[in-house]
Amino acid sequence: MTYRLYPGREQVQGLWLMFHGHRDLYNALLEQRRSAWRRHLSFTAQCEEITRLRAEAPFWQKFNAQSMQVTAKRVDLAFKAFFRRVRQGEKPGFPRFKSLSRFNGWGYKTHGDGWRFTPDTDHRHRIRNGTLRISGIGEMRARGRMRTYGIPKTCEIVQEDGRWYASITLLCFPGRETTGQAAGLDWGVSTFATVATAHGGVAQIQNPRLLRSAEEALVQAQQVLARKTRGSRNRNKVRRKVARLHRKVRNQRLDFLHQATAHLVRHFGFLATEELAVANMTKSARGTEEAPGTNVQQKAGLNKSILDTAPGLFLSMLRYKAEEAGAELVEVPTRSLKATQRCARCWETTKKSLSQRIHHCAHCGFTLDRDWNAALVALIYAMSGNGREPAACVRLPSSGAGWHETPCRAA
Ligand SMILES: [Zn+2]
Question: Between 233-267 and 209-227, two packed helices, what is the crossing angle to 10 degrees?
């Protein structure tokens, strides 16, 4: 993804200074290798050299350390290519010094280390343009359009005929079958899953009615079975019925899980969901101290037999289907993140009981459906890498938004 940069006059001077600096560094490292090439001076050795250089010469302290390593890496790659050509008996072509016209720029590694890119979102929720901040240079406007959502991964500054560009790679996998959209998932017992998209849309995946009625029939049959005296003929009959219903429910659920996961990876190139904790699922039936679950016995039985296995199956299916489709699935840590308590807008936590279906933030007042908010928190965490700050490319729905106001196609 290439962005055209619009630096101010002073920033242009700063960019040229870095440009010349990196070219000089490239040539110096190349020279060092050329004079020692039979000794195979390694990339690591040259990185140590850079560390020494930075410690001794104040000029280089203005440069980002990682970006200097990137330049050393380029020298390393040039030599690796050279040795490969030698091995293959081709005309080797010794790595050359870069003249100003043959040098095109420098690069950065980790987002946040020496550079930060913040994309803008336009009124149609498309991510376009943005701001690039480079340490030692400052903030510059960047024009260009991201085709897919993603986390900025690496950045290269390229100069061409006095124009400056930033080539930014994104951590996302548009894939063959997916649209490249991003979504967060929250799953529960009553609603199978809530899907929140990065541009404010939402959808619910309901348990299919057929499956629900089969599950209810199973629960009833189990209750009948429990009342029958052990060893009676009648009990055997009921037992067979329970077994049959069990198979039916299992097959229907399997079918549903296949469909739901295929659907998700078809629609989304980036999915975030809580990592699996079975305890979370069974807890739902017992409820909490403030809000004890209803029909605890019945639900607990059902959870034990069916629901326990569903999230695990769902997640493993989602994993391999995402891999097949080239979509990325990020599993966020449930316990430390506390997605149901955390606010998608201000990132503070507000304690709420299981019966509170609405998230109402005690800190910033943000109000949203509980599951929708939780799905967004998972998504923001996954997209920002660590969740310390909200991902710029997630557009939050307005506070108090209802389901039908922002539908998304994925339902
Ligand atoms: Zn809040």
Answer: 160
